[in-house]
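Bumping with the actual sequence this time:
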Amino acid sequence: SHLQAWSGPRVPDVAYPSLPVHTPQLISIPVNRDQVVLGFVAPSISRKNPDFNTMALLDIILTGGASSSPSSRLFQLREKSGLFYTIGGSLLYNSREQPGMIFIKTIVTQDKVEMAQKCILETFDELYQNGISQEELDMAKNMLFAASIELFESNAQIAQTFLFLKKLGLSFNLFDKQGELLSIIKMSNVHEVAKRYCDKNLMSIIQIGKVKGTQGELSKHKKGSIRKEAYTMAKKVAKKKVAKKRVAKKKVAKKKVAKRKAAKKKAKKKVAKKVGAFARKMKMKLRLVMRKK
């Protein structure tokens, strides 16, 4: 009742600067490690873009989407070729108010870098040139529809979903219409979007590890600054790992303490129960003795 008349100051919407035109390049960062990390990056779209649902279907078909479907093309490429330790990513990485990016990441051995790059770019080119099959489209629609239902499984998920919709200025009944919105997407629509965004020639490639030579923007940097940057990245990763281990150790320690406390409590109850039973027994005996007297 005290806050009914209260109103805070109006906060203006964030004004995002226009993004510069993306120029594809090859960036190589030398790091002393046995494996090479490869990243494939290109511009994507925002959450409010009319092509978002179509792009989300493409994402499931190519990368597996949020559920990491084993039917995705990248997963099948990994299984058939045996080139990759791991592979994954998204066509809608960080797509919110502003456009996100296409981001594919994999780890390979040094001798398989060129072959891995060729295979991934060919996978994009296959999607760009020939599109998808009806079977893939149906599978992606079913998975995307199922994922939208899972957003309302608990009170916390419902709250997060509506907060997300409010933050982006989207309709609260957006997911109620999800089936209808997906049903009108045809293979021709998917092919058009693939042609627009899945061109391998738009890809920038990032190589981290023991790679041959440097090209593109890398030539603008001095070796010392690259080593420093790589060292800083490695240091950050190491710090995160150490922090995670500490948290894990603390959790284990807390569990052990909790177990000990529970065991002590149980033991005390057991002793108290035995003492109580013994006291009752002695009382009964005393009563019998008193009656005889």
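The tokens above came from a reply further down the thread. The first strand starts at residue 26 and ends at 30.
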